[in-house]
Structures are given as C-alpha cells and as structure tokens.
Design goal:
By secondary structure, the protein is an alpha+beta fold. Helix content is 64%, strand content 15%.
Length: 413
C-alpha cells in the first residue's frame, strides 16, 4: 500500500512540477516581451540572436524556476488532497504524514542536487558566455546597448539619452556619469553624439558634441568645469584586461574562482590596512572600504550558490504542513498560498543579500537567513500537522481566507 501511495503522490508532484516550470518560465519571458519587440522592430536584431540569447539565459532562469516549481507542485498536490479529504482518509488508514513525506523528500533532494549543479558548474559559465555574446552583438549592432529615456549601465558608466532615432547610432540629449575613478567622479552633458565601434577591438566610442564636463574630487570640495565642442569617450565593453582576457563579474565566477579571488583580496586588504595605519588619509580609507566591500560581495555570491538550491528543501518542508492545515479552497487558494510562500522567501533572500553586502551580518551566511527562518518554521509546522495540532498562523490564514471569500461572493451577487 505504501508503495502505491508513494507512486501516486510522486506522479502528481512531477506533473505539477513541470507545469510550474512552464508557467514560471513563461512569466519570466513575458516580462521581457516589450524589450524583445523593441530589439526586433526598432533595433533590427534578428530572431536567431533573440533565441540564442534566451538559450544562454535558460540556466539562470532554471536556478529560480526549479525551487518555485517545486513549491507549486507540493502545495498543489497536498492542497488538493486535503481539499478532497484524501489526507483524512489516508490518516484513517494508518498512513502518517511522515510516511507521505518520503516520495516528496526524494524528489525535493533530486531538485536540490540539480539546482546545486546548475549554480556551481553551469550558471557561472553560461552567464560569462552570455555577456561575451552580448558584447559581440554590441560590436555589430551598437544601437542595441542604449535605450532612450532610461539610465543605462554600460561598462560601468551610467548613460542617459533623451532621444535615439530608430535604427540610428545618433544620440540627442546625453548625460554620462562615470564613478569608476578612485579620486574623482565625472559628469558629462552634451547636446548630441553618435556611437562607433571597431569590430577588431573591445572598445565602444561615444563621440560627443557641444557639451561640458564636471570633475568632482572625492576627497575635497573642489570642482572643475570643462566646456568642449567635441569629445570622445571610449568604453571597454569587456572590462579590464582587454579583449583576450575578459574580467569576470561575481555571478560569472565559479566557486573556486570566487574563493581564490576572496583569498587574494584579503591579502590586498591586509596590506591596505597597514598602509592606512601608517598614513591615515581619506584616499587610503576609501581604498580599504572598497576592497572590504568587494570581499563581502563575493562572499554573498558564494552564499547564494549554496543557499538558493536549498530552497527546494525549505519549500517542501514548509509547503506540506501549510497546504494540509490551511486546506486551500480549490486551485485559486493553492495559487495564492504558493505566491505568499515564494514572495516571503525571496523577501528574506533580498534582505539577507543587502545585510550581507553591508556587513551587518556575516556575508557567507547572509543568504541562509531565509532558509533558517522559513525552514525552521516549516519544520515546526510539519511536526504540529503530523500531530494534528492547530497552529495560530494557519488558523488565522484560514479565517481571513474564508472571510475574503464571503465578501467576494456578496459583491458578485
């Protein structure tokens, strides 16, 4: 009997899981529909390039859609079983919630391992190749890289353009902010300009006309204004190191590369701190802060590599008791519950990332903040549900849900 029940649950969970993959992937792609339409219609990008771009983004999408789809599968399966009184029937037959956990746990561990493989080995490489491919596209279709009336981040510079004619490299009403220098910030305002690119190099050139440059010293209050008729600004699309050696961003680094980078930065930080103790100055202090911030950012990325896949286990252990005790009314109630669970988790994840990058909590454990809170809550709820003891939060949710259902029914009459 146990084998039959396990197969029955596992089949429904797998079916709902793949439905979730399709739904969440569609939602992520739909959010970029207008951007795609602009690239095809106004920027002249081919559909082949669009399809290739999405293929390279797929591993990054899957890192998030797999845990979310598992949450959907667990809550839909157990919510429906609870609504149809199957859970009560199974308990009456002597099947405990712990026994029902076995097939779900097996599939959740599989999803956890798959997502971990993606975050450790696949996603960093695919993100890196995606950026290299985008750079290649920018070389041949340089108007793709900048949108009008939007603050664009291009090679570390913030660029705003008021108007760009369709399928043109000319720009009108230009604002550029460059904060990449250690000692000064540069703000450029120009009436017009145009983009050029050398396909043999890694540089994109913005030629500006009739404008001014504001140079702001970061250590003093002194500013300098330069007026120009013509000015050219080169942007290194690859980052430091030139076209042959591309600098990787944090999310493009493998786990080993992140660890190696953190080790090297720590040595650099120790030297900078010694220099700051010998020669205290605002410039040396800023250098120390920048390196420390870079270390924290990389440690947060390491935390993310392991924490996000573990969401599969968290969603499983939290979804079962919630769907069994709350007993959502139909599929709409299940969808609302899934949305609340996923939203709450990613709020914790975003908060942990901010706290870790600012050094308020240990960066290596920052992304585990949501896992610990929601995972611990799920374990508590699961034990209570297995003992058939109500919990205040689930009772409150059920009461509010029934009250809202009655209000909607009255309004619809």
């Amino acid at each position: 009997m146990q084998s039959t029940i396990s197969k029955y649950l596992l089949f429904e969970i797998i079916t709902n899981f793949f439905v979730g993959i399709i739904i969440f992937s569609f939602v992520l792609l739909t959010g970029r529909t207008f951007q795609l339409a602009d690239l095809i219609v106004n920027k002249g990008m081919s559909i082949y390039i669009i399809v290739k771009l999405f293929g390279m983004m797929l591993p990054f999408f899957l890192v998030f859609t797999i845990p979310m789809s598992l949450a959907l599968a667990v809550i839909l399966t157990f919510g429906r079983a609870s609504y149809d009184y199957e859970i009560i029937a199974l308990k009456s037959s002597g099947v405990s919630l712990y026994q029902l956990l076995r097939p779900v746990l097996i599939f959740s561990v599989f999803a956890w391992v798959l997502t971990s493989y993606l975050t450790i080995f696949v996603t960093p490489t695919s993100n890196f190749h995606l950026r290299k491919f985008i750079v290649t596209v920018l070389r041949t279709q340089i108007n793709v890289g900048i949108e009008e009336k939007v603050f664009n981040d291009l090679a570390g510079r913030i660029i705003y353009v008021d108007r760009i004619p369709i399928r043109s490299n000319h720009l009108y009403g230009i604002l550029v902010f460059d904060d990449t220098n250690v000692d000064r910030a540069i703000t450029i305002i120009a009436q017009e300009g145009y983009l050029t690119s050398d396909e043999a190099s890694q540089y994109l050139t913005i030629s500006l006309s009739n404008g001014s440059i504001l140079l702001s010293n970061k250590y003093t209050d002194s500013d300098q204004i330069i007026v120009f008729n013509n000015y050219s600004m080169n942007l290194n699309l690859f980052g430091e190191g030139g076209g042959k050696k591309v600098t990787k961003r944090n999310r493009e680094m493998t786990l080993e590369e992140l660890r190696t980078s953190v080790y090297g930065l720590r040595q650099n930080l120790a030297e900078l701190e010694e220099e700051y103790e010998r020669h205290p100055s605002s410039q040396n202090r800023l250098l120390v802060e920048n390196v420390a911030s870079d270390i924290r950012a990389k440690q947060v990325e390491i935390s993310k590599i392991f924490a996000i896949p573990f969401a599969c286990i968290v969603f499983m252990i939290l979804g079962i008791p919630l769907s069994v005790q709350i007993n959502p009314k139909g599929k709409s109630g299940n969808v609302v519950l899934v949305t609340l669970v996923i939203f709450t988790y990613y709020v914790f994840m975003a908060a942990g990332e901010v706290l870790g990058k600012n050094g308020w909590i240990p960066p290596l454990f920052s992304l585990w903040f949501g896992n610990v809170v929601l995972g611990g809550s799920g374990l508590y709820l699961f034990i209570k549900a297995a003992r058939e003891k109500p919990v205040f939060i689930t009772t409150l949710y059920s009461t509010i849900s029934e009250y809202m259902t009655r209000i909607i029914a009255r309004l619809s009459q």
